[in-house]
Specification:
The protein contains 3 helices and 13 strands; from the N terminus they run ββαααβββββββββββ. It has 202 residues and is α+β, with helices and mostly antiparallel strands. The protein has a 7-stranded mixed sheet with strand order 2-1-9-6-11-4-3, with helices on one face. Helix 1 runs antiparallel to helix 2.
Amino acid sequence: MKNRDFLVAGDGSWQVHQPMKEWDLLQTPYHLHRFLTEVEDVVNKGYDEIECLAALRLIVRRLITNSYWVRTQKPESFDTGFSALMLYDELGYPLTVQTVVAQPGAVSTIHSHGNWGVIAILEGQECNTLWRRVPDAQFPDRIEPVGEIILLPGDIISFTSDAIHSVKAMGDEAAFSFSIYGETYHSRRFEYDQIAHTAKNF
C-alpha cells in the first residue's frame, strides 16, 4: 500500500489508516502560513488526542502533496547522525515545525516526545522500533520492544504523547522527513536506556 498513515500509541501498538487520495488534497497555492493556521485551528478545537492526530495527519499530507518548497528545505547534512532545520520559530509559538535528515545507518536514542507528533517521510527509508513500558518493583522505567515499522516516502506516522520509539535510517540513501510536534514539555520527554532500565529527561 502506497502512502500509509500510522497511529502509534503508548503501549507500542499501532494502526494503519488509508489516507485520502492525493488528487483530493490538491490545493494551489498552499503555503506554510496556511498550514500553520490549519494546525492551530485543529489543536484549539478541544479534540481528544486520537481525533487531533487524525486531523493533523490529513493537514500534513496536504502540505507535502502541495508544497514543493517544503521538499527543498533540507538541513545541512553531516557525515553521520541527524540534522534538523527549524521551518518556523516565533517567540511564544508552542509547536516545533522542522525537517530532519538522517544519514544512512544513523540510529536515534529510545525516546518519547511528551506530546503528540506527526512525521512525514519525504525521501529514503526509516525503521521505527516501537517500545512499551513494562515497569516492575526494581526497575520502574523498564521497557521492551513491541515491533518495527519500515517507513517509505509518502508514509506519515503519528505518535500519542506517551508513545516510545527509536529511529534508524535504512539503506544507502539519507532519510529526509518533515515533522511537527506539540508544545515541548521537557519534564514529560524521556530518553530510555534498555540495558540499565533507566529513563532521564531530555
